[in-house]
């Protein structure tokens, strides 16, 4: 069947909740109404995204179909089970009492000239979301801040995640101001390194992590005070990409956070979908972004660690490993409030843009 007809049918289902419900109940009966034959109606009803992609259907659209019809997106064989409703959050694990803030955000918006004719209004709107997140961090009053980012600067030895163990975090080769510097926390950072290695996971420690755009851009707005110790965790998606591994890395951090007894904020940087001109993968994928934000909103963000790497990379989510580290630390069942989301950018730097605050349980 022609790809355009399949995609048209999927759009019809996406636009009409009642039609989708009837299709879920009896796909054969609805097939002709949306221009499908019985075979392709059953393919959609199975959530068979692999066959849909083989037929030329876009990855984001095929993943939305899988969201409708199977209970989880992962590497296992497709089944005929009905997907659990997003409104049903998984069982919550206790969030470590020491975690006083958790959230994620894109990098600070580019200058208005890169955002088109509506650039000034876009900057105002996005800055308001950042200011709201900054107020949350100040109110949480953390004693140490863990920031998860990817790196644009070379210099690491391995392809593993990197934990910055230096007493200061200075300017990187990509930072225009060589005088910039933040405080580190070598003792806490090395405790994180030791815990990760004790669990058999790879990690590189470095006292030369620099303040490039991925760290500096959000922190110059969000850091409550210059003296607050910052521990950078650097992912390297161009050298290795494992959603499951990123989540497991975050889960191990719980050990140190709980034992150290200090008030911790954790911030994941990077946007939703994004096209990377450096790595030549990804695309702006608003449909997939909305799926991810739905999962976050309903407390199912950690389940995104079960996605196969291709599903994330094809939809421009090479930065999402950063978020999965944060989600692994927070644990399942913690819902998010989406302060802002919109597709943005032009040319080689286009992508989704978002600011998210995790709704942590009240502290006793």
UniProtKB/TrEMBL annotation:
GO terms for MF: ferrous iron binding; oxidoreductase activity, acting on single donors with incorporation of molecular oxygen, incorporation of two atoms of oxygen
Arranged from A to Z, the UniProt key words for this protein are: Dioxygenase, Oxidoreductase, Plasmid
Q: Oxidoreductase: present as a keyword of the record?
A: yes
KW Cell wall biogenesis/degradation (keyword) present: no
Gene3D superfamilies xref list: LigB-like
Q: What is this protein called?
A: Extradiol ring-cleavage dioxygenase class III protein subunit B
**Which Pfam families does the entry link to?**
LigB
Q: Where is the Extradiol ring-cleavage dioxygenase class III enzyme subunit B domain?
A: 105-343
